[in-house]
Amino acid sequence: MGSSTFTIAGRLMNQLIRDRRTLGLIIIVPLVVMSLIGLSFPDEGILDYIAPAMLAALALFFSFLLTGISFLRERSQGTMERLMASPVSRLDVVFGYLFGFFFFALAQTLIIVLFTIYVFDINFMGEIWQILVFQILVITGSVTLGIFTSTFARNEFQMVQFIPLIILPQMFLSGVLWPVEQMPDYLQWMSAAMPLTYAIDGLRDIMLYGKGLLDVGFELAVLAGFTVVTSVLAALTLRRGAAG
Question: What does the domain layout of the chain look like in residue ranges?
Fold first, then answer.
């Protein structure tokens, strides 16, 4: 990872910051979604229990969507082709986009976490900084997943179709709506292969039971491993143009 990585990240960040409409949506959409979720659970006890799962699931969803579509736009505009023709490695390209997208994914995650905790006044036991550190690893894996998945899409429509294929199954099978332990055995095996399952388990341990980061070391290790694997796969499958 060299200076070209940070050059790519800086260019991407400047580009997104100049796009005021996109920047506004990055800020407003999480607030609207969390407001609807918070107001739809009038029972504070239910909201306290569901909050960790929703924080993990929305971090995955927003980071994946932002990264996947933005990365596809970079390819369709020919930026990727120019980068691939320059003397930079594929990992430099992947990490450059990872750092660039990470800044905005982190902003959305901060909005979601702080809005949920302070506006809806949910009860939790863990430290806020530990919740944020855990969420940082979640969104890092989501960003690399978005980059990897985007390499298989040729247009925005195809990229959006990956949401019901990749994101929705995790929402149904990872314990967001129903405890994994009460699912059939074959669905529990599928759930064990999904990163969102470990994100939800880790956040619930921190927020509901007051555990620390060391106590959720297994979940952190799984999420870190997922990030490494998707980063390598994204570099291996990287293509120059949207039609490549």
Answer: 3-236
